[in-house]
Amino acid sequence: MPKKSLYNVLAAASIATLFATQAFAAPQYPFPQQMTYKYGNTATYVDPSVIQTHFNDWKSAWYEDMGNGTARIISPNDSTEMSVSEGIAYGMMIMVYMSSTQADHQSEFDKLWAYWKKYAGGSAAGMNWHVNNKSGNADNGSASDADIDAAFALIMASKQWNNATYLNDAKTLISWMKSKDMESDGRVKAGSNWNPALNPSYVIPAAFKLFADVTGDSFWETAVSTNLKHLSQCQNATSGLMPDWCDWTNHKAADNTGAAVSGGKGGFFDDAARTPWRMAMAYNWYGIKEAKQVNDKIVPWLEKSTYGDANMIWPGYSLDGTSCPYAFFTTSTYVGGLGLAMGSADDPKNYLESVYTVLANSEGAKKAGAYKGEKYYPATLNILYMLSMSGNMPNLYDMTGLTKYTQTKTRMPAAPNATLMPVNSGAAVWGYENWGTYADKYGVTVMVPDSGSSGVYQMADGRYIVSAEMRIASEPTYEAGVDLIYPFAGVALSFDKQDGYYDLSDLAAIRLTYTSQGVIRLAILDQQTILDNNEGGEPGFFLHPAAEGTTVNIGVTENDFGSSYEDYLQDKFVTPSWVSGGGNDRDMVMKAVRGLKFEPKMSKGGFGAITIYALELLDAQGQVITRLTNGNFDAISPKRAVNAQNAQIQGKNIVFSNMPSNAKLEIFDMNGNKIASTGLQKSGSLAIDQLVHAKGNYIAQIKGEGVQKSLRIRR
Question: What structural domains does the chain harbor?
Fold first, then answer.
């Protein structure tokens, strides 16, 4: 037998013997810990059973026992043979905090730590950051964030299982990091072998302060202040966002120049997304004010640009927050990472509840390679974020002053202190009588008043208002062969009982006095959308959450319509990108309008509420329009855009012509997941049934030189 093989056999036998003889202690701080942090905000409504379910799915998908006394977290950048040190460290952290009286995970923790040491020269040192488990090849050098998280996990393990060996290993690793992962002035490097720039998400003040407490070495106090100073200088003045990589000298966004680092160029992407979470944790644990100040720079932009709800956090931004290069969909990586800036906010309002709702409804894959569910990185962060925000990731090394809380509930719909008027009662809000509520009956969405009610209430002083509260269900995740059912709810206004269409071409603004919570969209119920077979894709205006009696003038001129992310940020009426056939033509939209609707737009579910005190239609002179002209436009077909390249839905086919040679068709579900992709000939047709296999709504995007078109598919 070759010498190397014999060594591996003996090493495996030694590890197996160790685990066979080691006595495991019961967790000293079993999950759920549910501790109220000393500083900042603790989300006491997080349901531990939700975290447990996500953990069970995560463990079945990404934790793999290697059968030799070690285990790894599958972290597939290239394939499922790959593992990265980041994943091993995250796994160790999760095993510590998810250990309960019913299911202790010390054995899994020990196997992950054994795997770490296998690729760290057999000692408590930095692990080679990237391992191919099929070939056995490991890329040389460590990643500093993983080393920091592993040492952090070891310290927590020493308290969770009352085992000093873990603490000794942590101290050894901390000493190694000081000489390898850190500069002498306290700056954190990208890894043991490189320091191309600052990675803001590697600034982990809670861990640095913990290392100072454990070792008594003031170097780690210096690391806290030095790195936070540099990080603050890397923040954008408008949004507070920081880049994935930041130049140490000029504090501008730096390109990815390290051989073993990842991330985007010049924007807030997957690496930087974790930074607000790291800052919130530093404040929650230690009250580090400089960490809070980093998040405080983000909070105003975050609250405004996302309409006060984490459902509107998108995956990646330009540093000034004015553009989003990716499609509008949610992922745990950003929702939790960026949303937890509110964990240290002075007044988070209901934002953290929306963060939890999105994370709770973001399903992880149940096995590696599965199409459905979030993959390794977002699924892993999903658990860490929920543990952290809910007080289930307390400082086990020093629990002084922490108190266990009693779990609370998320908000549920309730009626105002008023009398609900019957349908067709004649009760009017500023002259408009034909109000009605609507909601799906799929068993999850809850609405007050119930669907089919008027939504009109009479207050004690005799005034009439329109009011509705709803907790809407999450939209489904694409799954082949499964019919997809989308939840809905809202309040609609018809201008007359016959749903007649009116010419509102002269309308310049809508003056609205309202109160709202959650993401509420005011949509124009126009005839063009119906005739284009795009129902649900009406142009809409997102209302900013408002206190009682807020009055806004919402422009509806040509300049107030758009379709881009920039238009959305500028509070314009935006037509969804999948709407085809001239959906942005304001004049055609306003030629035939039958009413308005107010609906929650939260893809991962959540709480929404709208109360309308006054609604007035204004002309260009600011005068209230008191008489609507019924143009009887039912028989008129809307104008359609004429393009050199043409693509449209005909029956059960996508028909196209005059396409460039590089034209490509991609199909997305309503969660932003790509489910089909194919090149296009110059002209032809494709059967929809061959592209998508489950009933539901989809978006088809055609792109190529000189052509970009979106179509909505209903199968």
Answer: 3-398 (1.50.10.10), 419-630 (2.60.120.430), 646-714 (2.60.40)
